Structure formats: structure tokens, C-alpha cells
Amino acid sequence: MALASATAGAARRYILGLGPLFPVPQHAIFIGPQGLAGCVIAGLLAGGLSSLLTVGVYAAEDSFARLPVHWKWWPAIGGVAVGLGGLIFPQALGVGYDTIGALLQGDVPRAVIAGVLLVKSAIWVISLGSGTSGGVLAPLLMMGAALGGVEAGFLPNEGAGFWPLVSMGAILGGTMRAPFTAILFALELTHDINVLLPLLVAAILAHGTTVLLLKRSILTEKVARRGFHISREYATDPLEILFVREVMRTRLVALPAGATTGELRNKLVREPAQRGQHLFPVVDDSGRIQGVITRKALRELTETAVSGAALGDMVRKPVVAHPDEPLRAVVFRMAETGFTRLPVVNDDGQLAGMISLHDLLMARVRNLNEERHRERVLQLRLPFAGRAGARD
Q1: Is 68's pLDDT higher than 80?
Q2: Alpha-carbon torsion 152, 154, 158, 163, what sign?
Q3: pLDDT digit string (tens) for 300-341?
Q4: Whose CA is closest to 173, among 201, 197, 203, 148?
Q5: CB-side exposure of 28: number of CA atoms within 13 Å?
């Protein structure tokens, strides 16, 4: 993608020249608090319009699905709607680059602005809902610029085409859930670097509005309707920020490498900590781990072997974890090996503890409890609330 973008940027000079595709009047680099407050309003309005357009597209799709005709007729019906819209408002047809350019110059009659917002939006929603292959980029730019034309009537005057340009980027960022792409796209189209801050405010607020109002964007909703899971995770993975040393168990039974079965029987009887332990590390005289043995194998060894027999071949090579590792790495290691219990060793091989799948789950529970405690709503008690309730 980077190489393709670089190739297009280099070839653009020879095909389209170096000037902006949509020239705009130069805007002031400083717009002041009132202008920034207007950008907040523009961002919220753009987020609302983006949500309406997204809901409209899939409401139209659901409506076509309920028609008592074969799906192959849906695009034809959608084409009829587009044709009727073109008869009512011809500027709604096509990509509308000339209309976008005029809106950015600030010299478009109100009737044209209303036609773009009403007719263009309607035929675009119906066309996409009918399954007709159509563009998203140019229609969104046109509708965003038209929204900015409406806003120019009541927001602070920051120059011709200012609010159409800001709303154009905000609509693009909110509908496609790509605010930074929308900001750069608007700057590339106009070469007006002075609107970077207003675009940042409006596009991010539009994006945030659609995230709060809709589960998915206009692009991912189609994928989700085909049965594919679309995840959207904005929280930090607790398994990435918690370490093994924070959740490992240090109270466990370790077996000497040279112990006989008779010694093992006596040790297990005397150690109450071993009752819930299912994996036993085997260590040498200096505490370095030599292997592990399961509880089942250890029981078979102590019940069937003679008292003088050693651990021998019953011990297997361990898969270990380290105290400074994040829990995410331990989860991956458990998934790869199939082992749900791992001994924890220091860098010098000394046994430090044991970690199990249960410990990972308890770490997740602890994190959830901390999040709930941090997100508790502050409850305010009014001094006269009790008396009023008593009188009632």
C-alpha cells in the first residue's frame, strides 16, 4: 500500500499536475475559541449524519430483502429510484466533483445544498441498499460539503468554504471510521494546511459519535452480515500488562531429583500443600529444575514401584515460564504445548513458583474487579432527600 501510494504520488505530477484538485480560498491559521467551538458542533452534526446514512443504507437493504421479487431485480429497482432522483435534482447524478468544488468555494445556492442533502442522500442510500455497485468516497464528500454549507449559515464566519471543507473531512472520518485518513485526504484535495486543527477536532468528534451510536461502520456492517466476526477492542489486554510474578503460586511441593519412592511417599504424606497440586517440579540440590512429573504418574510410581526405585524415566522435560514474562506470552505457550501448568524459573534455572490456567483466569477476574471499582458512578446524596421520601 505504501509503495502504491508513493507510485501514485509520483505519477500524479505528470497526469494531474501539482495543484490541488479542489482549490479553496486560503483560510486563517488561527480561528479562535469560537471557531473551535463551531468545529465541535460540526463534528457532532457530521457524526449524526454519518450514523443516519449508515442506518439508512442497511435499512434500504433490509427493505429490498422483504420485496416479493427475486434479488436480481433489486438493482433495477434501485436504478429507477436513481433516475427519479436525477429528474428531480440533476446535480445529484454522477460523482459530483463540480458540485464539491463549488461548495468548497462557498458560492452555491441554498436550493442546491438542500438538493444534495435530501436527494443525493436518498438515491445513494437506495442505490447501495439495492446491491448496485457504487462509490462511497465522492458521495460522502459531496454530502459533507453540503452539510458544511448549511452550517455556514449559523456558525462563525471563518472564510468562504471553511465549513464545507471541515464537514467534508468529518463526514468521511465518521462514516468510514478512519478519521486520520479523512484528515489527510482533505488536506491532499485542497492543500490547505491551515485547516489541520479544525479538521482534527471535527473528524475525531464525528468518529467518536458514530462509535457510540453504531456497533459497526458502513464498511464492516456488510462483512458482519455475511457471518464474519468483526472485533473492535479499545481496551488494553490485561494479560499484556500483568506479569507472571504477580499471579504465580510460590507455596508448592518440589521433589528432589534423587529421591526414592519410599522418600516420596513420606514427603507427600507430610506436605499438606501438595493436595491441590497436579504438577510437581523435580529439582537438584541447588534448587535448579530438572524436570516435572504429574500427580497421576507420581501416584503410580509410589504405589507400584519398590521403595528403593528412583524417579527415573517418569520425569519429563519441563516447559517453563519466567517471572518477568507477561501473561499473554504464557497463554500462547500453553496453547502451543497443550500444558495448562508451567513451573516458573529464574534466569539461573532456580525454581520460583508455579502458574496454571486457573491463575490466569483469576488474574483476569482481578482486572475486571479493578475496572468495575474504577468505573463506579459517584453517588450524591441530597441532604433533604430522606425527608422528602418520608413525607411521600
Answers
A1: yes
A2: negative
A3: 777 765 555 556 556 788 899 999 999 989 999 999 999 989
A4: 203
A5: 8
Q: Which DSSP category does 312 fall into?
A: G
What single-letter DSSP state applies at residue 56?
H
The closest alpha carbon to 355, from 195, 248, 262, belongs to 248
Query: What predicted TM-score, i.e. pTM, was given to this entire model?
Result: 0.65
pLDDT over 90 at 262, yes or no: no
Residue 292, phi then psi, degrees to nearest 5 = -140, 155
What pLDDT digit, counting tens, does each position of 73-83 carry? Answer: 999 998 999 99
Pairing state between β 279-283 and 289-294: antiparallel
Q: Which pLDDT band, with edges at 50, 70 and 90, does 388 fall under?
A: very low
Q: Which residues pair with 283 in a beta bridge?
A: 256, 289
Mapped onto helix, strand or coil, the DSSP state of residue 12 is helix
Non-local (6+) Cβ contacts of 82 within 8 A are: 93, 123, 126, 127
Buried b (16+ CB within 10 A) or exposed e, 196-224: eebbbbbbbbbbbbbbeebebbbebbbee
279-283 sheet: strands from edge to edge: 255-256, 279-283, 289-294
331, 239 Cβ separation under 8 angstroms = yes
Give the range among 20-24, 59-63, 68-72, 133-137 with minimum mean pLDDT: 133-137
Considering only CA atoms, which of 209, 213, 214, 212 is closest in space to residue 230? 214
Domains located in the chain, CATH noted: 14-225 (1.10.3080.10), 239-259+276-294+316-374 (3.10.580.10)
For 290-311, write each residue's pLDDT tens digit.
888 888 877 777 776 555 555 6
Identify the CA nearest to 366 among candidates 206, 260, 226, 246. 246
